[in-house]
Design brief:
By secondary structure, this protein is mainly alpha-helical. The chain contains ten helices and no strands. The longest helix has about 35 residues, at about 250-280. The N and C termini lie far apart (about 55 Å).
Length: about 290
């Protein structure tokens, strides 16, 4: 399995997990629901790209599985700008008139994806390029919404944080667009899934904290979550690596035990790791929090 397929699988799993976690929240705001749908669409698209990598088209004669995966990728890719526009229009609190234009654009994007992905047009290179160009153009419109709200904001800190959101969105679009170069045998590092996943995580933390995060908070949160994931992975490996692969019952038992151990350790470890990361990388912030706690 090549790195492009692995990164698509990783982005798909994380995107789906973020979306489901948002939709499972009780008494959630409309913007949280729209973000959950947006994250699900991004995760589903990357997961479809993973499946497409497992069933590649050989000698320009796609079999049924390869053709289905290709069509599914096109349809889900066209769905991403629809859910993105719906989320950003709600998140940035635009007028109902702007929301109507956004819904029309979303409908056109979905119809375009179905027209190409569910018909023989999917086998035509020009049709796939046209859908890809439209998706990138529609996503760029979301960036323009962020820039428009940034210019209209009077508070300097809000403008700065909206600029972070705009840069992150633009970076996700650019690197996702560059990933399409691989379809034309042009070598380029596969960074689109990783950048888009980090951006989704940034947006989710922004919504959960009910405010825009600054750059230090974002880096600290990513670092703490990475360390926490590493610790939990070590716990899982220690409890399961020694079990023989042909001993299914013992492996399932140890996997269940490992899951219980991780659930027990998750909350205290999360607090401890985040505190240590803040103390290590952001000493002034840690000192301030300590003084407030005292």
């Amino acid at each position: 399995m090549e790195i492009r397929t692995q990164s698509a699988l990783l982005a798909g799993i994380i995107g789906l997990a973020l979306g489901i976690s948002m939709l499972l929240r009780q008494q959630r705001a409309r913007v949280v629901t729209l973000f959950g749908v947006f994250a699900l669409s991004v995760g589903a698209f990357h997961f479809a790209r993973f499946l497409e990598g497992l069933f590649p088209i050989v000698d320009d004669a796609p079999g049924i599985p390869a053709r289905v995966m290709l069509g599914l990728t096109i349809v889900l890719g066209a769905l991403v700008p629809s859910t993105a526009l719906s989320f950003f229009l709600e998140f940035l609190n635009f007028s109902p008139r702007a929301a109507r234009y956004g819904r029309r654009t979303s409908l056109f994007s979905l119809l375009l994806g179905l027209t190409v992905g569910a018909t023989p047009l999917a086998d035509q290179l020009w049709a796939r390029v046209a859908v890809s160009a439209w998706v990138l153009l529609a996503l760029s419109f979301s960036v323009s919404l962020l820039l428009s709200r940034m210019q209209a904001s009077e508070a300097r800190i809000d403008r700065l944080r909206l600029m972070y959101l705009g840069i992150g969105a633009a970076g996700s679009i650019v690197f996702s667009g560059l990933d399409f170069l691989a379809r034309f045998d042009i070598p380029f590092p596969t960074l689109g899934p990783i950048i888009s996943t980090l951006y989704l995580f940034f947006l989710s933390q922004t919504l959960l904290r009910l405010r825009l995060m600054d750059l230090h908070e974002l880096l600290g949160k990513i670092a703490s979550q990475t360390v926490l994931a590493g610790i939990l992975a070590v716990v899982f490996i220690v409890l399961t690596v020694w079990v023989q692969k042909d001993n299914t019952s013992l492996y399932l038992f140890n996997t269940t035990v490992a899951a219980f151990v991780m659930l027990i350790l998750l909350e205290p470890l999360s607090r401890w790791v985040e505190e240590r990361v803040v103390a290590l990388f952001f000493r002034q912030r840690f000192a301030f929090l300590e003084s407030v706690r005292q």
